[in-house]
Write a structure and sequence with these properties.
44% helix, mainly alpha, 2 domains, Serine Threonine Protein Phosphatase 5, Tetratricopeptide repeat, 14 helices
């Protein structure tokens, strides 16, 4: 076992860790049993915080190697996945603050594999609050970047073939955030009122990034949305119903928005069958039912959409 990794696992002591790094700085980037030092330090927040201030931060978006030999495990192989799965609130907060990518790609196939969705499925309510807070903050920062370059991206929207009405809505959404507080400074119960949306939140973020890219304005990876279609937070397959109120409090408005087939988030067959089958077994699902009723989630119908599957005659 490498020197730094040994100390992180067996004797988590800050002074010993600092000494080990001075003696063997190269071990920061080495793996131990297929894990990086960031994976190993998830259970020790002070050590993780220190390591993120060293060259180990280069491993922020590096998956473990276990996923290469364990089929179906790649979606939970990143450091933030470990923090989420182990309900390590402090460590998750540190990793998100450091700018980890929530939409990483499978290193073997080069395709996005739903790491955020899987992380939310196995995490705690406290960790879901951390996810929601940081994701709201990242969206605010993306729009702040767009506002500072508003003149340049307005012409970019036209070149992207976006309709005039949609351009107006995108610009209005970007400008509106200027008058709102930084969500990073708000408590979980002090967010701005959620407004109905016409363009989905995911599509809005995507169009903004495309416009910024077109005029060659650098967008940090942490601010980029998922490349997958229909990737609003509420459309994530594994997002439990119990987390819906958490994301709504942090300003995410699409809890009744349809996907490309016209299906609302509650109509997701995987989530509905999984969560509702647990309703009689777990208090957590019973607790969220009043919220779902209050927000009309149980009264919605599919939206009319050209891509919606049609019943055979």
């Amino acid at each position: 076992m490498k020197l730094v990794s040994l100390l992180v696992v067996l004797t988590p002591n800050m002074s010993d860790l600092e000494s080990a790094i001075r003696l063997s700085p190269e071990s920061l980037l080495e793996r131990t049993q297929s894990l990086t030092v960031l994976h190993l330090s998830v259970g020790w927040p002070p050590g993780l915080s220190f390591l993120l201030g060293t060259n180990a931060n280069l491993l922020l978006d590096t998956p473990d190697d276990i996923s290469k030999t364990t089929r179906g495990r790649v979606s939970l192989s990143w450091p933030f996945s470990y923090a989420s799965a182990n309900h390590c609130v402090q460590s998750l907060d540190l990793l998100l603050e450091a700018g980890c990518n929530l939409y990483p790609k499978d290193p073997e196939r080069g395709k996005e594999i739903g790491a955020l969705s899987c992380a939310l499925e196995v995490t705690s309510t406290e960790c879901a609050e951390v996810f929601a807070r940081h994701m709201a903050r990242r969206r605010w920062e993306l729009f702040a970047l767009a506002r500072s370059n508003i003149v340049r991206i307005q012409s970019s929207f036209s070149r992207l073939g976006i309709s005039e009405n949609m351009r107006k809505e995108l610009i209005a959404t970007i400008v509106a955030t200027e008058h709102r507080s930084d969500p990073g400074q708000l408590g979980s119960d002090a967010t701005e009122p959620v407004q109905p949306v016409c363009v989905s939140e995911h599509d809005t973020n995507t169009f903004v990034v495309l416009a910024l890219d077109q005029v060659e304005i650098q967008v940090p990876v942490s601010l980029r949305p998922s490349e997958l279609v229909d990737h609003d937070i509420y459309q994530l397959l594994e997002l439990p119903f119990v987390f819906f109120p958490i994301f709504e409090r942090h300003g995410f408005a699409g809890y009744n928005e349809p996907n490309k087939y016209g299906l609302r988030p509650i109509m997701n067959s995987f989530r509905s069958s999984y969560c509702l089958s647990r309703a009689s077994l777990g208090k957590e699902i019973q607790d969220v039912l009043p919220w779902l009723i209050q927000h009309s989630c149980l009264d919605t119908r599919p939206a009319r959409n050209q891509k919606q599957p049609r019943r055979a005659s």
